[in-house]
Amino acid sequence: MKLIKTVAILLVTVLSSGALSAKEQVATLAGGCFWCVEEAFEQLEGVREVVSGYTGGTEAHPTYQQVSSGSTGHTEAVQVYYDPDVISYAGLLQKFWRIMDPTDADGQFVDRGQQYRPEIFYHNDLQQQVAEASKQWLQQYGPFEQSIVVPVTPFSEFYRAEEYHQDYYKKNPLRYKFYTFNSGRYDFVERHWGETSGVDYQRFTNDNPGGMTQADSRYQVPAKARLKEQLTPMQYRVTQQDETEPPFDNAYWDNKASGIYVDVVSGEPLFSSADKYRSGTGWPSFTRPIRPDAVVRREDNSWFISRTEIRSRIADSHLGHVFADGPEPTGLRYCMNSAALEFIPLSVMKERGYDDYIADVTGKADSQN
């Protein structure tokens, strides 16, 4: 019995020190202040432990004071110990993109300098391939207009930070909350990603780092420069600059034809005519999107009021807002801008490749137009 207890104690000690268990893998990621990065990853299912530390520099066994001075070449980072049968490396990277600013190579939010630079440190060829593919996905489909500048670098050495830095958010909750809420990180994430707590990180696989379905891959998003050429000035201002078109003076506010409404940028399906109704507002209004995950909801506090903005999932186009004053069966009013939409008549849906959505037009109850 004494021997069993000794082995158990040793096992707990090894695991808590950041060593790998039998089937675990490790990811090393830098996204600014390691307190914040550690907390974010420890919420994920499949992650056993996250260790804060330093990597990417030349100084052996550096102290926090040395690293924070910016003289060691190290950056604050974390090592994530995870079960690849529960969450993939690609899933971890999707979380990573959603907690930091991948367009800023000189620090993160209020923390400036190379000691806070973002970086992905890969441990093997697979991690390198997945990281590069995920970064490419983010550049093409992510919510950022600027270039993604996070380096993908081979891992060399990781030095565990001082004990008071480990699980800082648990040990010092008040100080941690004060820091995070004033750092600008939360505001940045909300502005670019909206509510992300519902994202299923387990749907991202190493073979498909962006979680794109075969249908999603059909919908391409042109570069910003090309969009200015392809869209009308009003379409560009609405979809890319979050503006609102005038009511009663737009293409679809009184359209009664059967068909679907797709994103004018990407062509991804958004709404069905079967869910369209006359709201009296002068904008096309719907009781629901064509599929539950067709749109993304974000908090919008512009104009001194709190609203829920609606954006397309793939192109990230600004579409409009949703309000709780609509008719049954949902009680919602998805108030959209015609300039963000293209209407595909039922008669040409098959020809245009929208066969899978015909039932969403013909199989639902008659619209309230």
Automatic annotation (TrEMBL):
Q: Which residues form the MsrB domain?
A: 224-346
Report keywords, A-Z: Multifunctional enzyme, Oxidoreductase, Signal
Note whether Oxidoreductase occurs among the keywords. yes
Residue spans making up a coiled coil are none
The entry's active site is 33, 335 (nucleophile)
User: What's the superkingdom here?
Assistant: Bacteria
> MF terms per GO, please?
L-methionine:thioredoxin-disulfide S-oxidoreductase activity; peptide-methionine (R)-S-oxide reductase activity; peptide-methionine (S)-S-oxide reductase activity
Which reaction(s) does its UniProt entry say it catalyses?
[thioredoxin]-disulfide + L-methionine + H2O = L-methionine (S)-S-oxide + [thioredoxin]-dithiol; L-methionyl-[protein] + [thioredoxin]-disulfide + H2O = L-methionyl-(S)-S-oxide-[protein] + [thioredoxin]-dithiol; L-methionyl-[protein] + [thioredoxin]-disulfide + H2O = L-methionyl-(R)-S-oxide-[protein] + [thioredoxin]-dithiol
EC number(s) per UniProt? 1.8.4.11, 1.8.4.12
Task: Give a single Pfam family match.
Answer: SelR
Q: What start and end residues bound the annotated signal peptide? A: 1-22
Classification via InterPro entries: Met_Sox_Rdtase_MsrA_dom, Met_Sox_Rdtase_MsrA_sf, Met_Sox_Rdtase_MsrB_dom, Mss4-like_sf
User: What biological function has been recorded for the protein in this entry?
Assistant: Has an important function as a repair enzyme for proteins that have been inactivated by oxidation. Catalyzes the reversible oxidation-reduction of methionine sulfoxide in proteins to methionine.
Family statement drawn from the similarity comment of this UniProt entry: Belongs to the MsrA Met sulfoxide reductase family. Belongs to the MsrB Met sulfoxide reductase family.
User: What name does the UniProt record give this protein?
Assistant: Multifunctional fusion protein
List the taxonomic lineage.
Bacteria, Pseudomonadati, Pseudomonadota, Gammaproteobacteria, Alteromonadales
Name of the encoding gene: msrA
